[in-house]
Design a protein that fits this description.
By secondary structure, the chain is α/β, with parallel strands linked by helices. Helix content is about 35%, strand content about 15%. The chain has a six-stranded parallel beta sheet, sandwiched between helices. Helix 1 packs across helix 4 (about 100-115), helix 2 (about 60-70) runs antiparallel to helix 3 and helix 3 (about 85-95) crosses helix 4. The chain starts with 18 loop residues before the first strand and ends with a helix.
Length: about 240
């Protein structure tokens, strides 16, 4: 369907909500690593090199770090997306080597995803939404062009309760660009005033508002965060109060 953007004002139409979109990292899935991986580049690269059977010199590590920093959206924000092959082939080219990129990038991503797990309330919340007939979808920005084969594995345990999962690689753009939100609306077959979006970062809120979608911030800390969101939750289970269910 062609998405019609209808701007939502407040919660007076909350009974019309037919779908809930979610960010993934630090919203549905918990990671113990920081959002900015820069401080863990060295161990991550060593883990990746071991997986690929590569012996790293100090110069090779520094060259790889230069490339990773260039594509680090926490250091150099961007709305366009790239692919992991582009990034990791660039590293290999700087090394002047002919190496299969897959085991190298796979080892790198596995280092940072090793402890990924849903928050305690995630599964029950998604299951209850499905029982109410509410459609659910994910829209997530991936790190370093991470392939769906890796990034979507983190939500595989939730697949029975998620109707559609979209990544920035699928769309070609990152939040707060509205392209991903519009694709999510189309995929779920709803209009903008029929969905809310839940995320943990400012870009989640800005992107949702650009697309005319009700924005909900999940804030599990006690830190005050005002990104212009329409509502704030301390736990995903609070979504039912927002939906008046």
């Amino acid at each position: 369907m062609k998405t019609e953007v209808k701007f939502y004002m407040g919660f007076k139409n909350v009974g019309k909500i037919k779908a809930v979109g979610f960010d993934v990292g630090h919203t549905l899935i918990q990671y113990n690593n920081p959002l900015n991986w820069q401080g863990l580049y060295r161990p991550g690269l060593k883990h990746a090199a071991a997986a690929a059977g590569i012996t790293l010199s100090e110069d090779m590590i520094l060259a790889a770090i230069d490339v990773l920093l260039k594509y680090n959206t926490r250091v150099n924000p961007r709305e366009w997306e790239t692919t992991s092959d582009c990034i990791f082939n660039e590293i290999i080219e700087k090394w002047g080597q002919k190496t299969d990129v897959y085991p190298f990038k796979s080892g790198f991503f596995s280092f940072f995803r090793a402890d990924a797990q849903p928050y305690p309330e995630t599964t029950a919340t998604l299951e209850k939404l499905k029982q109410y007939g509410i459609k659910t979808g994910n829209l997530t920005d991936v790190a370093y062009g991470m392939d769906n084969a890796f990034s979507l594995e983190d939500i595989a345990v939730l697949s029975d309760f998620i109707d559609i999962a979209i990544t920035s690689v699928d769309v070609g753009y990152r939040k707060p660009n509205s392209a991903g939100y519009l694709k999510l609306l189309d995929s779920l077959g709803v209009y903008s005033d029929e969905m809310i979006f839940v995320g943990d970062e400012e870009k989640d809120i800005i992107g949702a508002k650009k697309a005319g979608i009700v924005s909900v911030l999940i804030n599990r800390s006690k830190e005050k965060k005002d990104f212009g969101q329409d509502d704030t939750l301390e736990s995903l289970s609070g979504i039912f109060s927002v939906l008046d269910l």
